[in-house]
Amino acid sequence: MNVDLGTVRGQLARTPGVLDALLRGLPGDWVGLDEGPGTWSPRGVVAHLSHADRTNWLPRARVLLAWGEAEVFPPFDRAGHQAAEAARSLDELLDDFAAVRAESLHALDTLNPGPAELARRGTHPEFGPVTLAQLLATWAAHDLDHVLQITRTLGGGYREAVGPWRAYLRIMRPA
Questions:
Q1: In terms of CB atoms within 10 Å, which end of the chain has fewer, N or C?
Q2: Coil/strand/helix, residue 130
């Protein structure tokens, strides 16, 4: 499937509202749930998404557009969100994500990549050559991956409470 910039942008624009509707007002023990060691809570995921918008997607897109394959993308610290997560309430994290995403979408609109730019290649530090279209599609899929993670984590909070219905609930099955 070809990457349609309008669809990607629309997807990215919806994520803050989806997460706000899903998480705002939930008790702290629920938004602090995780799936075990080395996994993130919904709070952590929101902080991670803000961090990724600030330090990953657009910085890499700019490097790709400016340098092509000649410059390797800057490294991304996947856990770089932890200080912000610890210092802020969930409401503050959700508000920050909404603001950062709005800025990101404005910056993407300013870049306004056309077909030639979407096909342009850059160099990922692990994967090697990638296109701008792949980077933007991954940004949208990354959001969806984390929405899935959050819903699976919240669903897991009901694992014992649902009793035998667990057998019929895919959300209760191990990832």
A1: N
A2: strand
